[in-house]
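Researcher: We're teaching a course module on how sequence relates to structure. For the next exercise, students receive a sequence and then see the predicted structure as tokens, so they can try to spot secondary structure elements on their own. Here is the exercise chain.
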Amino acid sequence: MMNILIKNGHVIDPANEVDGKHDILVSDGKIARLGKPGSIPANGAEVIDASNKLVVPGLIDMHVHLREPGFEYKETISTGTAAAKAGGFTSVCCMPNTNPVNDNRSITEFILSQARNASARVYPIGAITKGSKGAELAEMGELHESGCVAVSDDGKPLMNAALMRCAMEYSKIFDTLIISHCEDSSLSDKGVMNEGSISTELGLRGIPRAAEDVMTARDISLAELTGCRLHIAHVSTTGSVNLVREAKKRGVKVTAETCPHYFSLTDEAVRGYDPMAKMNPPLRTADDVAAIKRGLKDGTIDVIATDHAPHGLDEKSGEFDNVPFGIVGLETALGLTLRLVEEGVLTLAEAIRKLTHNPAAVLKIEKGTLSIGADADITIIDPNVAWTVDSSEFKSRSRNTPFNGWQLKGRAVQTIVGGRF
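Model: And here is the predicted structure for the students to work with:
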């Protein structure tokens, strides 16, 4: 394996509070040395000039749907990790709503086998319940031993509170993270967008904020009762932000994520019945977007994740009521996150922290750092390059994005995984 010397880059490593110009030497797939510009001799290493660029730990997306096994026409582990690499992500966590559902050792091992030669590292997330049907707990110990970094029934809310409590109690045995899809399906029933004036105007059935808030409150209460580690997925409402903020103040072991679409778009995007604006939870109001930004700023929301949810073109081309929820996000997330920096919502270091160190810390994986001896997972970003989102150029197998044609600034220009380009 070749040695690499990355020179003259602006290195941001929030895990080690590094923020300044440095050279980095990569040797045998590991971070070997960090020094002032010009202080590390090349000695035959391949030299990358990172002048005017950011050099950061490889980005981590803790919430993606790679669709394999079972839905390879939407995405595969190969195409999904190619999209990740193109977006600057060196590690992704794949949700279990495959076919069959990842609720046992054999499916987890299949995913890891398929990921062996993938473009990015893949960390499976197992199901909380068998088949994600919400009726019987999956074998959490087996999932943990086979390589799952968390458990979730993402895409399907676990409505049985007693079963969720039981899952949380079991999770403590293995120190397994519970990732909650906070949705009360009796409140969201058949809704397709945010409930409000726009849903009324468009004649579309709405999903009230309470559908998310009620379940966020329930699962925080259960986490407080059991002492488990709880992570709230895809936060979209003011209420959820406030609930997580207050829970953290009480010492509850709760973390949270949001997605770029929840701080970049509102339910105004649904006008025209654009199926690319249909996601779950749905796009909310300007007030909710403002609350999400406050939550990101004050640390209530720890992580920015994509909820990358690929669908076939035919599936996303029908009537708004009938098309599936979800958008792809791996190749647009970084550019959309950097808009928060331009707006002054986050500093550059804070934005990078939510894409690197924080998800690694939440998952308890040894990634998201440029520490000496760490795996050389590195993303090089040109923060000044302006580009236009063109979904036809995506590495993902699917094209379902509401951001097609958007002008963004800042993009990953090189992604290194384990010392390999």
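Model: If you want an answer key for the exercise: The chain has a mean pLDDT of 98. The chain is about 30% helix and 20% strand.
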